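WARN  no MSA supplied for this record, continuing single-sequence
INFO  ligand: S-adenosylmethionine
INFO  echoing inputs
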Amino acid sequence: MNKLYIKHSIVPKLRRFSPWIYVNEIDSPKEEFGSGELVAVFSKTDGFLGTAYVNPKCTIFGRILTFGKESIDKAFFAKRIQKAISKRARLLTKTNSVRLIHSEADFLPGLIVDCYGDTLSLQINTSGMEAFREDIIFILKQELNPSWIIEKSDENSRTIEGLELKNGTIFGEPKAQFEIEEGAIKFLIDIQESQKTGFYLDQRRNRAICASYIKPNDKVLDLCCNAGGFGIYALANQAKSCVFVDISEHAITQTQTNLKANKFANYEAYAQDVFAFMKEKKYKDTFDMVIVDPPSFAKTKEQSHGAKKGFKQLLLEATRALKDGGLVAIFSCSFHIAKKELLELAMEVSHDLKVQLVLEEEMMQDSDHPCLINASASFYLNGLLFRVEK
Ligand SMILES: C[S@@+](CC[C@H](N)C(=O)[O-])C[C@H]1O[C@@H](n2cnc3c(N)ncnc32)[C@H](O)[C@@H]1O
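INFO  complex generated
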């Protein structure tokens, strides 16, 4: 195995189990390494630090697979996958659909696996993980006996890694629509057409938190609703009605399918841009709860200024649409707009609309999307629930 020397200055970072080595942190010529190659990580002063895979095309040059002395083979991946699955046992008593493997946060960088009943959705994002594709598929079949494995490896990160995009059945019989359960609520999934790896499983706990504030007769507005998760939970908790908005026609069709599956008819659903929708409707003092769950808007630090403007606009419109004492939940899945930035935007909205915002809940991704304390990017989903005093 080739040795990769890293700069002495990052030894403390690696000793704290931080899993990434940036290209400007290496002390070996990057041209000496191939995409996806396994390397032994060394410091000239501190010796062996772990085993990583590397990609000279990427800013994140290396991702550590182990800080110990282990062989990286099928048995290594089987052990890591079994451990990730066993950590989800508690959640699997409440739902049949969870994220089973969440990349670095499950010590398997570049690998995402969701299970939806006996269907698995697989995403491989790095050339280092791609090299173990066959082993991973073998282990998943052996451990979980799935009826269908679908691949959704179509994130832009694969292009940066020099990999082609992959999307389609790996094993078993494709299903057009199938049902999953979150407690008593049913969702239908059209995984081939859906966004990301199938369903926004990361919002499961936050859907329940928001729904726990619903009172009978509450009117709810679910902005950027995707398949209707938040609004459907609210209706299941006795909300009087819900208005759903998403720019994607497919997401709105799926929302309607899910409403029907749960026997709810008290709704309106619009496939429309949320900014145009709110401008057109001019809602004021209308709703008891508004959920704002937009896409990341900011994938890089440079985009964060424009994204903040978008978030502020939505929070402003949502707050205006609330009755006195109503609740607004705002979420950001961008690492660049975290809790601190959301709070700052809320203060600006409070100032501009001359209303008080009282923080009721701080929210994060559900536990099947673990937060690794030494990989700050794994804290990617932030949400705040405010009560608005007008
Ligand atoms: C993070 S997802 C929402 C997840 C959803 N709340 C759930 O719990 O399943 C963001 C959604 O915003 C939608 N979206 C993106 N841009 C939009 C826009 N300009 N107007 C309305 N919806 C938009 C996407 O189609 C996507 O469904």
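The pocket of S-adenosylmethionine is lined by residues 195, 200, 203, 224-227, 229-230, 245-248, 251, 273-274, 293-295, 333 (CB under 6 Å).
INFO  checksum written, moving to next record
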